[in-house]
Design goal:
There is one protein chain. By secondary structure, the chain is mainly beta. The chain has one domain: Thrombin, subunit H, CATH 2.40.10. The chain has a six-stranded antiparallel β-barrel. The model has no long low-confidence stretch (mean pLDDT about 90).
Length: about 110
């Protein structure tokens, strides 16, 4: 299995703030795992770029903040994958609970 996809993923429709230097982008995530997310319908950023991320899980008011690294970028379409770099253990548990509650994407 591809290393980027070793974690269970769920389909989501959430906004994630991605900050790179002085630029702040709102990215729509199409799927989520404890390892990262996939931003759909976005102009890809260069693979290897590090961004600061902030997002809320459905039904939860407290934001998750962590760094992310762009690990894949679509060449002919819009979209990119981001890996969570320094996700706190408590936030990892929150994502795991969400995945268990919603189910696993095939």
């Amino acid at each position: 299995m591809d290393e980027r996809r070793r974690d269970k993923r769920i389909p989501v429709d959430i906004w994630i703030e991605a900050e790179e230097g002085d630029d702040l982008y709102l990215q729509r995530a199409a799927n989520l795992s404890v390892g990262g997310a996939y931003f759909a319908q976005t102009v890809p950023t260069q693979v290897g770029t590090t961004v600061k991320l902030r997002f809320e899980l459905p039904g939860e008011p407290d934001a998750i903040r962590c760094a992310g690294e762009i690990v894949s970028a679509a060449e002919k379409t819009l979209g990119m994958g981001v890996r969570f770099v320094d996700l706190a253990d408590a936030d990892r548990e929150r994502i795991e609970k969400l995945i268990a509650r919603i189910g696993v994407e095939p």
